[in-house]
G domain-containing protein
Amino acid sequence: MSYKQENLKKRVCWKCKNQLNFKHFCGSNKSLSLERAKDLWFNSNLEFFCCKCYIEREGKILHVSELKKVLILGFPNSGKTAITHLLKDRYLEDPESLLPTRGISIQFCLINNGRIAIWDLGGASTYRRRWIERRELIFPESNKVIYVIDIQDSLLFNVTIKYFSEIFNSREICDILGPELKLHVLFHKTDPDIRNSPTINKNVEILTQKINSINIPFKYEISKTSIYSFNPNISDSLLNS
Ligand SMILES: Nc1nc2c(ncn2[C@@H]2O[C@H](COP(=O)(O)OP(=O)(O)O)[C@@H](O)[C@H]2O)c(=O)[nH]1
Ligand SMILES: [Mg+2]
């Protein structure tokens, strides 16, 4: 089996986050062809463990409980996919390499022994319409919705708030989501260097007013986030609370 020349992405152990090695993975799974091994290695829905964590898992130290569902919604380019990566992997290798999301991308991660499915819902207009039309398929059994707004792009405020209210002012969608839903609105791209600038403060004020004027039937929280100041505490509070 030749894997030396392969430019394979690095993976980390799901539990301890130590880096894993494709060569060792092939060595421990000799019955797999190189193609099959690569398919598995690149499949982001699969969990990989290092030997130590795998043995502990076998010993039932790692219990996986229920699967929580988190939806990430918002306009294109607001930062949904970047946030999904940060929530799932805790790091973002190359923010510039993100491509527009086609349809839905579902990523799984494990937090405090609970499995979480993060649904990153494409924000292009055809998709936005589709999520609302197919609400019966998209919204049921969600534990949390994270709605992302690019705080720097004030030209889009009215349209993103319109989409937001199409979801959270819809009796039907709110009934599907249920009264226990946790809604988190992110004023995203509040980068550290502009966090306290007059423009951003003004944008925060405008958006907060717009959101507060919508009759949202859930408890909601507004946070200012940036990929440049994302940390594990923010991930935990977004996924756990
Ligand atoms: N300045 C800044 N750019 C960001 C931030 N988050 C994402 N981006 C950039 O915004 C662009 C769109 O991000 P992406 O996650 O693909 O947006 P999506 O279309 O909502 O999924 C990419 O070029 C990202 O690098 C942030 O916090 N600050
Ligand atoms: Mg995307």
